[in-house]
């Protein structure tokens, strides 16, 4: 029986080792995983795998959706009041995030830009927020530059989200071949619904109908196993996907 347990520990370590290679993590993780298969696997799961997993993103999305449904403007009201009362950098970051969540991308961008001029200029979450605000407000080249800079600073930071946002930013800036390469790489690395959907939206928008239809067929096959909760979490992306296909038929 001890051998069975030992084998399971190594199987888990191998699973995480594959994740290290597929997602481009630092190679020292391989040494840690195989030198200390039990402890190394636990540390890798907590430090790398979970923060970048769809499970954690789904949980965050679910909480955000529930809170917004109960009181759609509460976080923005509280964030604005906190900043008006105490205009610290931390409160301005909170206000910028609340504005972006409320769809006020231009004002969010203005607040993120102010944060980028202060002591938190190199903070990855601030830079990510700024990039998202610029992307939402149509400043695609600026968003692309920021996303590439984030990746240079830390290739593991929100790797899938950065890749998909960068693909959209490059496409919006007219750099279509670079966008295609970014989406294709994201699909190969992550294989998620989000990667397929964003790639399909890009494909149908740029006239690559065969690629778009192949990706859409894969999405439909995956959706057959979804529950209502999963559909709700992905509702916004699905709406964009359907709108892109409808425009492509027009």
Helix/strand order: HHHHHHHHHHHHHHH
Which descriptor suits the 3D outline?
Answer: globular
Report the strand count.
0
Q: Percent of residues in helical segments?
A: over 70%
Strand content: under 5%
Mean pLDDT: 85
Q: SS-based structural class?
A: mainly alpha
> What's the tally of helices?
15
| Termini gap | 64 Å
List low-confidence stretches: 1-5
How can the largest sheet be summarized?
none
Rg over alpha carbons: 20 Å
In short:
This protein has 250 residues and is mainly α. The chain is 80% helix and 0% strand.
Defining key terms:
about 250 residues; mainly alpha; 15 helices; about 80% helix; transmembrane helix
Describe the fold and architecture.
The chain has 250 residues and is an all-alpha fold. It has a domain at 2-49. The chain is built from 15 helices and no strands. The protein has helices at residues 2-22, 28-35, 37-49, 54-70, 74-85, 89-101, 105-116, 124-136, 140-153, 159-172, 176-190, 193-205, 209-223, 228-233, 235-249. Residues 1-5 have low confidence and may be disordered. It comes from Ideonella lacteola. The chain crosses the membrane at residues 27-50.
Topology:
Blueprint: H1 2-22, H2 28-35, H3 37-49, H4 54-70, H5 74-85, H6 89-101, H7 105-116, H8 124-136, H9 140-153, H10 159-172, H11 176-190, H12 193-205, H13 209-223, H14 228-233, H15 235-249
Helix pairs in contact: 1-2, 1-3, 2-3, 5-6, 6-7, 6-8, 7-8, 8-9, 8-10, 9-10, 10-11, 10-12, 11-12, 12-13, 12-15
């Amino acid at each position: 029986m001890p051998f069975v347990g030992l084998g399971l520990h190594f199987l888990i370590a191998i699973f995480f080792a594959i994740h290290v290679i597929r997602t481009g993590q630092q190679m020292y993780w391989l040494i840690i995983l195989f030198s200390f298969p039990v402890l190394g696997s636990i540390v890798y799961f907590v430090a790398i795998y979970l923060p970048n997993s769809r499970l954690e993103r789904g949980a965050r999305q679910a909480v955000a959706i529930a809170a917004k449904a109960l009181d759609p403007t509460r976080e923005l009201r509280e964030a604005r009041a906190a900043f008006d009362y105490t205009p610290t950098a931390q409160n301005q970051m909170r206000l910028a995030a609340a504005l972006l969540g409320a769809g006020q991308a231009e004002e969010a961008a203005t607040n993120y830009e102010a944060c980028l001029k202060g002591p938190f200029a190199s903070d990855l979450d601030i830079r990510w927020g700024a990039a998202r605000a610029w992307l939402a407000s149509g400043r695609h080249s600026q968003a692309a530059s920021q996303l590439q800079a984030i990746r240079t600073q830390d290739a593991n930071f929100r790797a899938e989200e950065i890749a998909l946002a960068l693909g959209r930013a490059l496409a919006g800036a007219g750099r279509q071949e670079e966008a295609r390469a970014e989406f294709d790489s994201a699909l190969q690395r992550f294989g998620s619904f989000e990667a397929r959907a964003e790639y399909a939206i890009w494909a149908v928008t740029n006239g690559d109908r065969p690629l778009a239809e192949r990706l859409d067929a894969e999405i439909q096959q995956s959706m057959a196993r979804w529950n209502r909760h999963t559909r709700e979490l992905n509702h916004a992306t699905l709406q964009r996907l359907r709108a892109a296909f409808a425009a492509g038929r027009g």
